[in-house]
């Protein structure tokens, strides 16, 4: 399924107000000139590397820019050490030590939920990375709020009573997991697309889903959503269960053992969980030490697999996960283009079932038709 269209004008306004101010002056002028051209799209990433050209990433393709913002095949505007230092001053507010915990993880989240990745020399104490110095590369990953991103698949993530299934969204980096999670949270909270209005606790450890500023979400995540901003996932999940009486807990990029333990506690308390994880597909996710047990034992009931095949947010499939089933045997339902109409036919309990088909060149005469 192709991703839904995004308002380019809205994305442009957010980019100009939330990302451009954090670029050094020369790069800011070049990127502003680039996006001011009618045919140019808002970049997915802006990359600064010492002694190499300024680049923007649009539709997964790297494009070098000259000082006037023109896309060039060779050469381009070289980024110097001074631009990197200035970028760090802008991103950190000239207070690197205040953001050491984020820098230890290799990124800083700026206002609006945009992630600024850092490349440099790691400072290691024992086996623990404490921070990075000698920054030589900076990658601005642009967050895009896309209301309506979950509308087509949400009916497959809720039961007959309108309540959410326990759902995991998996994909490689940069495929739209966070954007989709944000819109699922919005729909569940507001009761859209057949969902029952639900109290949602959003544990936003990296401040990217709700993009809180001063504790107030800048992205709309629903009327009934409580946000635990910049809170470690495991702690936030347990805190939310004990104090906020949520019906659904949502969080981004699970993977550590303590995350899994907290999710087990949430499920045992009768709270539904919607989460994302980095993996190529469900089988890859099931092999990850931190979350493999939850997936393998069927605690997640649905899995959404994303890719960039038609751009970020391409839905490769929505799967029904078996309870303690065999994940290696994946069956794709051949069905008509009337996707989203419920399960056409159910397989054995030890199979994954594709609820939303991938776009392909299947022969229509072999597809069973839906009424």
3D architecture notes:
This protein has 371 residues and is an alpha/beta fold. 23% of the residues lie in helices and 26% in strands. The strands form 3 sheets. It has a 9-stranded mixed β-sheet, with helices on both faces. Helix 6 runs parallel beside helix 7 (257-268). 43% of the residues are buried. Strand 2 and strand 3 form a beta hairpin. The chain folds into 2 domains: 8-141, 2-Layer Sandwich (Beta-Lactamase); 154-366, Rossmann fold (3-Layer(aba) Sandwich). Mean pLDDT is 84; it is low at 328-353 and 356-371.
- Helix-strand string: HHEEEEHHEEEEHEEEEHEHEHHEEEE
The helix count comes to 9
Number of domains: 2
Q: Using the coordinates above, name the CATH class of the largest domain.
A: Alpha Beta
* Uncertain regions spanning at least 5 consecutive residues: 328-353, 356-371
- Percent of residues in beta strands? 25-35%
- Count the E strands: 18
What fold name goes in the CATH topology slot of the largest domain?
A: Rossmann fold
Terminal Cα span: 21 Å
Overall helicity = 10-25%
Q: Which word captures the global form?
A: globular
The CATH architecture of the largest domain can be named as 3-Layer(aba) Sandwich
Strand numbers in spatial order across the main sheet: 12-9-13-14-8-15-16-18-17
């Amino acid at each position: 399924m192709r991703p839904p269209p995004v308002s380019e004008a809205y994305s442009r306004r957010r980019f100009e107000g939330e990302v451009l101010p954090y670029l050094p002056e020369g790069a800011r002028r070049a990127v502003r000139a680039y996006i001011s051209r009618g045919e140019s799209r808002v970049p997915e990433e802006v990359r600064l590397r010492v002694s190499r050209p300024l680049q923007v990433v649009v539709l997964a393709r790297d494009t070098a820019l000259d000082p006037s913002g023109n896309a060039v095949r060779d050469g381009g505007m070289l980024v110097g050490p001074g631009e990197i230092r200035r970028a760090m001053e802008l991103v950190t507010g000239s207070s690197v030590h205040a953001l050491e915990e984020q820098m230890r993880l290799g990124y800083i989240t700026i206002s609006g939920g945009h992630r600024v990745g850092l490349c440099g020399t790691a400072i290691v104490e024992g086996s623990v990375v404490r921070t990075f110095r000698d920054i030589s590369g900076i990658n601005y990953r642009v967050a895009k709020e896309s209301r309506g991103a979950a509308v087509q698949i949400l009916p497959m993530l809720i039961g007959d009573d309108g309540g959410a299934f326990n759902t995991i969204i998996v994909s490689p980096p940069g495929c739209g997991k966070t954007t989709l999670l944000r819109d699922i949270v919005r729909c569940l909270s507001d009761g859209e697309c057949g969902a029952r209005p639900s109290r949602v606790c959003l544990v936003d450890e990296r401040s990217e889903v709700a993009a809180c500023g001063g504790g107030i979400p800048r992205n709309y995540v629903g009327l009934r959503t409580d946000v635990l901003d910049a809170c470690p996932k495991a702690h936030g999940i347990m805190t939310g269960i004990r104090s906020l009486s949520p019906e659904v807990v949502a969080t981004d990029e699970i993977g550590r053992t303590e995350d899994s333990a907290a999710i087990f506690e949430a499920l045992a308390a009768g709270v539904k969980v919607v989460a994302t994880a980095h993996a190529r597909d469900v089988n890859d996710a099931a092999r990850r030490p931190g979350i493999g047990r939850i997936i393998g034992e069927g605690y997640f009931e649905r899995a959404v697999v994303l890719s960039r095949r038609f751009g970020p947010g391409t839905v490769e499939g929505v799967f029904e996960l078996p309870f303690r089933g065999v994940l290696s045997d994946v069956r794709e339902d051949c069905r008509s283009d009337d996707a989203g109409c419920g399960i056409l036919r159910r397989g054995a309990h030890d199979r994954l079932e594709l609820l939303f088909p991938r776009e392909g060149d299947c022969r229509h005469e072999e597809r069973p038709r839906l009424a």
